[in-house]
Amino acid sequence: MQAEASAIGSQAKYPRGVLNTLGLVACGAMIAYALYEQHVVGLEPCHLCILQRVAVIALGVLFLAALLHAPRAAGARVYAALFALVALAGMVAAGRHVWLQAQPPGTVPACGADLGFMLKILPLQTVLVKVFKGGAECQKVDWSLLGLSMPAWVFLALAALGTCGVLANWPLRRAASSRSSVRRV
Length: 185
Known about the structure:
By secondary structure, the protein is mainly alpha-helical. The protein is built from nine helices and two strands; from the N terminus they run αααααααββαα. Helix 2 runs antiparallel to helix 8, helix 3 packs parallel to helix 8 and helix 4 runs antiparallel to helix 8. The longest helix has 30 residues.
């Protein structure tokens, strides 16, 4: 009951619109930084990097939709569930990427064709299987901060953004309503 009361207090302290706006800004900043690293610094994204970008963009779209829609209880729960699913999907891609980077050099085969070409000639299911197998370019660590590679930071950011999206959009019962439902003798 105490944990529920503190969660209710935090939801009242930071309204849904504020948290959705902060999530949207964070997603935009992440994509802007990824594009900076690609087009200015010259780090080319691998297949798994692109899937992680798709997850961040999808979370950004969800934050925007939840912000503009401002649904009531049932709709907000749908948004919360979507935040959880998209964040988990992105975390799977980032987690796989981190795992590939932890493998000994030379143990991961090359990816082969680029993603655009594979999408043109292969069914989507086959492309996704090939992408998740990863490749040698997915194994390289070109960037790190505090000992963590970019996919590791993306994993942590997706976990935080997904949690923020769920907490912001999952309506909680008010403490007063739960107290009034207690039977008095």
